[in-house]
Amino acid sequence: MIVTVPGRPVPSPAAAPAEDPRPELLVDADLHAHGDPHGIWRWLRRHAPVHRHPAGELPAFWSLSRYADVRAVYRDPETFSSRHGVLLRPVALGEDPGGGMTLALTDPPRHRQLRAVVADWFTTRAVRSLEGTVRTCVRDVLARAYEQGRCDFVHDVAGRLSMHVIGTIMGVPERDHENLFRWTNEAFEAGVSLAAHHELMRYFIDLMERRIAEPTDDLVSMMAGGTLGDDLLTEEEILLNCENIIGATENGRLAVAGGMQAFLTHPDQWERLRADRDLLPGAIEEILRWTSSATHSMRTATRDCEVAGQRIAAGDRVVLWVPSANRDETVFADPYRFDVGRSPNRHLALGIGEHVCIGGTLARTQLRILLTELLDTAGRIEPAGPVHRVRSIAVAGPEHLPLHITPR
Ligand code: HEM
């Protein structure tokens, strides 16, 4: 157990962070690593829900912080395009090279065609067929952690699990999973794009060429044989989509590790879950809401329009702050409380609408199987050192989570 808390006192509302009227700091990665952006988001929701952020190293953009506005923009891909990038990027780097080519960076109707090419691998049925693989991997990573008595939960458990599962889906042979894990870790740690990591890209070029020549039953083969209208996907499109999908799994590992961290700081919720496993599906949704590991999505207006009474011009960028939407006090009762029994819980952690996360079922399944194994087999789980958060305005969660962990 994490820590035993006897009984369950009647909760008083969890304290909201003090309002912080400095929205300009939201683009400072140091704030996300060392400070608390929630004070700024709370201030924005109350005082400036559609706030203009001036151009600097990043282009100018509108900040949206309220649930209703974030949801409305996600649901209107005709007015708010993903084609020009979905993450803030320094002006000096130019537009994202994946524009118009990857799942995340295309608009309908092309987006729907592309999504149909890969969708089969992410359906509930497909993910169910992977449950055995996920469980075996969870048992392996936990056995290793128990044997050593300590682990970095981000790297040794959440990261290894995410990479093993996506490697299996993509058709990376088991013997190469360790390399894939090492290369992606190096890329994430260096904060560079996966494409800039030559070994990883060389590996995927080789895998793609093998699957084009001799398709098997995996995601890369599916893309190699996939068509958009009458045309096969180009090699560039296949590679950029491999990068998009592997990169997106970082959200998964951060949510898993952030969930563990939430239980360490809310041990009463762990005990509640241990006592009543029926709470597990709700606990998973609460982990997703609480961690909101994808910090923002960006869109570009295709026409002049209005959001919450504010005029937005065609070509303007709009940034949707997901963690802020997920703490909106007009939607979530006591939003700063981590509550595994929360209901309803219609969070936006996985987006919504046209581009809703394709890996959502997979992410939930990994969380469910890992939490179940931990509840069944873990004895003590305790912090083994300070926790540092990732230094990023795009993703949030612990960079390292050192734990002492022993079996029951
Ligand atoms: C808890 C973990 C995860 C979170 C919080 C998350 C979050 C999100 C969000 C917010 C979006 C929408 C982005 C937008 O509209 O601009 C998205 C899209 C996407 N996610 Fe996830 N994700 C997670 C796990 C995964 C996993 C495990 C995979 C891959 C296996 C994945 C693959 C994708 C892809 C490919 C897209 C683009 C879908 C599209 O544009 O049609 N995600 N994710």
From TrEMBL:
Pfam families: p450 (PF00067). Residues 1-21 are annotated as: Disordered. PANTHER family: BIOTIN BIOSYNTHESIS CYTOCHROME P450 (PTHR46696:SF4), P450, PUTATIVE (EUROFUNG)-RELATED (PTHR46696). Belongs to the cytochrome P450 family. This is Cytochrome P450. It comes from Micromonospora fluostatini. The lineage of its organism: Bacteria, Bacillati, Actinomycetota, Actinomycetes, Micromonosporales.
